[in-house]
């Protein structure tokens, strides 16, 4: 799957099709092209719930310039907020707003989007969902509806101990067979 080309959304679920239209109407990917945007999170992998947002991860070279760009492009949108902050030892910019009833969160850092945790989490979650099937997917969605975030829901179902965000990243190097064996023991 080429996650960098959001056209896959247009042949997905109803929410994915709606997200595709919304993103294109706002022209987010065209407007942010210089920052290599990638849609991450639950909507691309089909485990979104009503409160799920459109997470877009970007790479900037200059945090202040990126912040100004976000303000210039999106400050007129409903509930627009932006902040620069330190996260895990590096500087990030996070802009959020609502457009056509979709909450957006645009996250920028110095790291390429494919190296950022949200993208890496999405890849491993997608892989696990493909391996473990519909029943597992429905259990993740149910836990999310009950208030758990995505990574803690995966960790609970897989009986992963410790920080769920780190535990999922640790699964990047695990083989498909090992994931299946782990699930069958859970």
Automatic annotation (TrEMBL):
It holds the Pfam family DUF4269. InterPro entries: DUF4269 (IPR025365). This is Diadenosine tetraphosphate hydrolase. It comes from Labilibaculum manganireducens.
């Amino acid at each position: 799957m080429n996650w960098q080309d959001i056209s896959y959304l247009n042949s997905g679920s109803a929410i994915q099709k709606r997200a595709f239209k919304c993103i294109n109407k706002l022209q987010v990917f065209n407007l942010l092209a210089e920052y290599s945007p990638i849609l991450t999170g639950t909507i691309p992998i089909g485990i979104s719930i009503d409160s799920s947002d459109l997470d877009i991860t970007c790479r900037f070279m200059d945090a202040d310039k990126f912040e100004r760009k976000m303000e210039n492009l999106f400050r007129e949108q409903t509930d627009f907020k932006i902040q620069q902050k330190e996260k895990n030892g590096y500087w990030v910019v996070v802009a959020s707003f609502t457009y056509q009833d979709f909450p957006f969160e645009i996250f920028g850092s110095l790291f390429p989007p494919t190296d950022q945790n949200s993208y890496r989490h999405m890849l491993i979650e997608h892989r696990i969902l493909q391996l473990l099937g519909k029943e597992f997917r429905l259990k993740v969605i149910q836990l999310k509806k009950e208030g758990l975030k995505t990574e803690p829901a995966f960790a609970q179902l897989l009986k992963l101990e410790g920080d769920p965000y780190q535990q999922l990243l640790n699964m990047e190097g695990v083989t498909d067979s090992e994931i299946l064996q782990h699930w069958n023991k859970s």
